[in-house]
Every structure is written in C-alpha cells, then in structure tokens.
Amino acid sequence: SAVISQKPSRDICQRGTSLTIQCQVDSQVTMMFWYRQQPGQSLTLIATANQGSEATYESGFVIDKFPISRPNLTFSTLTVSNMSPEDSSIYLCSVAGTTDSYEQYFGPGTRLTVT
Amino acid sequence: KQEVTQIPAALSVPEGENLVLNCSFTDSAIYNLQWFRQDPGKGLTSLLLIQSSQREQTSGRLNASLDKSSGRSTLYIAASQPGDSATYLCALRTGGATNKLIFGTGTLLAVQP
To answer: Are B105 and A42 an interchain contact pair (Cβ–Cβ within 8 Å)?
Structure first.
C-alpha cells in the first residue's frame, strides 16, 4: 500500500488568488493523479502527472488553470490559479499500486473554499 | 462510453442490519473494480479490490462480488454499525495503470444507533 499526505488540509482563499497543494507519497511511483470533487458530486480526474514529462490533462481542464509539477517520484504539486467560487472543492492526490492489481490509493484531500 | 451507477443514492438502516450496496456498469470490459469509503470532507479509503477474473473478495464484515456478464458489483456489509456511516463509492478501471478510474455516483449510508 501507499501512504499519501497532502498540504494544506483545508484553506479559505479569496477570489482571484492562487493556491498550491502539495502531495507526498511514502514510496516511488511512476504516475500520480489529481482529482477534484465538487460539493455533493463524485470524483473527476483533472490530470495525470508523470515524473520528467508534462502532465496529461482531462477534457475540461487546462494547464493555465491547473499547473502541475512533478519534480521527483514521490512528490507533486497542483496549483489552482485565479480562483473563483466555482473552484470550491476537495482536491485529492492519488497513486496506483505498482503490482499488477493497480490498486488505487488516495490522500486525505485538500478542502478549498473560495470566497 | 463506460457509465457507472450506484443505487440507492442514500440509505438509512438501524444498527445491526445486513445491507447491500449496488454498483452497475455498462461495459463488461473492465480490468478491476474497487470499493472505497469516504467520510465527510475526507479522502477515500480503499475497502476491497476485485480483479476481472475474480467473483468476490472478503474483508472482515465486508464482501464484494463481481458479475461482469450482468454489469454488476455488490458490496455486502454484515451487522452494520454506526461507524459504517459514510459515502461508499465504486470505481472501475478499464486497463492497466495508464487507465483512469471511472467512479460511480456514490451511496450515502447512515446507520442509526
């Protein structure tokens, strides 16, 4: 299994500002995933982050709004830029296990409120 | 396009009852299916993972089954407890690690003491 930590656990931000969320994994992983969960909704994949290459974004998500860094095999950051109240969500970092089962593990999430 | 649906959307039961949560999917070509638990405002905790070649998995009071031909998975919770109250999500993977998880809509479970 993988143990994932995220910082901050929650934040309240003003419209127009940016927030960077950090994700740390206790083991080396090839791919890290960033998800968004809007209030009352299920999870939506934002992007997949590979070490040493550009992140791959899902339809509806763009790099200018959600820039991602992946400097090494245990760490990634997601920035939510120029925030609006519609960005209020839980943001979750996730990794897939390295065995053939590809069991997926999630961090505790970052609860973001934009006022 | 694969779609994943969970029924019911919400469920309230008295403590001690056995219960079944349902997860339906439209395409039987899946790699595996995973059940998660999510407490309010928190991340996801993996409960059970079933590979496409398996029929069921058990962990303590939890039992998950998979029937690809009918596009269904069920999560059985025995002797429910108030601490089981949470949202339960199923998610399936259509390929290996490069494929994303497709999440169901979730079932909000409340176990009344």
So the answer is: yes
